Amino acid sequence: SDATINKLLPAINYRLVHLDESRRTIRFATKDVRIDLGGIAKGYAIDKAVNIMKSCGIEHGFVKAGGDSYVLGDRNGQPWMLGIKHPRQNNKVVVRLPLMNVAVSTSGDYERFFIENGARIHHILKPATGKPVTDKWSVTVIGDSAMMTDALSTTLFVMDVKSGMALIDKIGNVDAIVIDANGNMHYSSGLAEPSSELH
Questions:
Q1: Domain boundaries in the chain?
Q2: Are 68 and 43 in contact (CB under 8 A)?
Q3: Burial 51-68 (b: 16+ CB within 10 A, else e)
Q4: Separation of alpha carbons 135 and 39, rounded Å
Q5: For a disulfide at 16, which of 29, 115, 124, 147, Cβ 3.0-4.6 Å?
Q6: DSSP of the chain, one letter per residue?
Q7: 74 in Cβ contact with 100 (< 8 Å)
Q8: What does the pLDDT look like over 2-29, one tens digit per residue?
Q9: Which range (68-77, 95-104, 125-134) has the least confidence?
Q10: 38-187 belongs to which homologous superfamily?
């Protein structure tokens, strides 16, 4: 309910999380504060798996967990071809990316959701409102670390497109593709732009 959301909104504040490095402890300033590792855990696990593969001498492979993946090396001498799903047409791919030795993470409103009173209610909430993001369908981030791309895909999902792309450009060595709620595709400066809208 709106009343519950409004009651809990003040707990969405990183300043309420207190780290004590010397004692190696964490403390929350209020009882309503929680940490959800869903935005980085799969990416972290993928990075660990890829490191194990490399330490075993494996040079080529594909590791996937949910919307996060890592392509190691190539596939039979060619780049891996990863597709970004169309957020509203289940069996359609909007763009295929030839990739090697990178992590790819996608956050979207189309995997875990329900419709209530005509509105799509999904799991990615805007921190300022506690309600689902409505201006985007999908965000895909490409970079060296799956933990980083996992965190950034969720982060960009809750930001406006312009600010999100500015963040990607500032960080460097990562790229992003955002599909907004009008079906328009936005590309970070490091990617070629094949098409700006979905068909």
A1: 1-35, 38-187
A2: yes
A3: eebeeeeeeeeebebbbb
A4: 19
A5: 29
A6: -HHHHHHHGGG--GGGEEEETTTTEEEESSTT----GGGTHHHHHHHHHHHHHHHTT--SEEEEETTEEEEES-BTTB-EEEEEEPSSSTT-EEEEEEESSEEEEEEESSSSEEEETTEEEES-B-TTTSSB--SEEEEEEEES-HHHHHHHHHHHHHS-HHHHHHHHHHH-SEEEEEEETTSBEEE-TTS--S-SB--
A7: yes
A8: 898 899 999 999 999 999 999 999 999 9
A9: 125-134
A10: ApbE-like domains (3.10.520.10)
Q: Record the tokens describing residue 129, joined without a space.
A: 């409102």
pTM: 0.90
Q: How many residues does the chain have?
A: 199
- CA 84 to chain CA centroid, Å, is 13
Full DSSP string of 45-100: HHHHHHHHHHHTT--SEEEEETTEEEEES-BTTB-EEEEEEPSSSTT-EEEEEEES
